[in-house]
Amino acid sequence: MALAQVSSNKCSGGYQKVFEHDSTELKCKMKVAVYLPPKAENEKCPVFYWLSGLTCTEQNFITKAGSQQAASEHGIIIVAPDTSPRGCNIEGEDESWDFGTGAGFYVNATQDPWKTNYCMYTYVTEELPRLINANFPADPEKMSISGHSMGGHGALICALKNPGKYKAVSAFAPICNPIQCAWGQKAFSGYLGEDKKTWEAYDATVLAASYSGPQLDILIDQGRDDQFLSASQLLPDNLIAACSEKKIPVVFRLQPYCSLLPTGHVVQRLSDAAV
């Protein structure tokens, strides 16, 4: 699968690059950011997949999180894809910030007109790893996944639906129980239809309640003053309760900030990914 380099910048001893490719799953051109640490020049490296939140692109994480220094130190490749298909000329795709463009919700849509392009779940879990493994010195046995808000939701469901695929999973201010919040209900009804039973396949709280795979350690950082926490959009307590019932270890850290991505969270998960 051909990758076209869009940009390349020296960063923390390695290279921060952005590529474009024709996605077979999404049937459009997609951009993906890839950080290559110095270690990648000589040997295979673990891969840390980062899923961004609503309205974001592949640029948000690589310009705001400061993750390249930690990735350089631990010898980890960072992969940050876009958050949705773009330029598909679907009626209504640009009408709201929380549905359509920039809001793919990491599901495989089953409803017209979205089902042709909006298959972000398969893109993230299958097509993108194949692309990365084929074009970079990536260790396919050492993948981890994390994300913020909608992307935190994405990271959690990818790990819960694929037991053993990821060495570590974490999330910052994730949407933990989308079938019970306004964001999730809007997205799921549009992408998946009105049968709420089908929504459960993409809800971390529901998936945790039925999880039967190998031990999965989950780390969640949440800002205490996050307006979306108080607005019941994130619902971390529901996920924690489900994990407790299934004895899935969860480290939940309530932080004194609102919604800025903590560098410490990224460093810790990059370190976990290197194991």
From TrEMBL:
Q: Which SUPFAM superfamilies match?
A: alpha/beta-Hydrolases (SSF53474)
- Going by the record, the broad EC class of this enzyme is hydrolase
Primary localization class, coarse: cytoplasm
What Enzyme Commission number(s) appear in the record?
3.1.2.12
Alphabetical keyword list: Cytoplasm, Hydrolase, Serine esterase
Q: Which family does it belong to?
A: Belongs to the esterase D family.
Q: What is this protein called?
A: S-formylglutathione hydrolase
**Which organism is the protein's source?**
Hucho hucho (huchen)
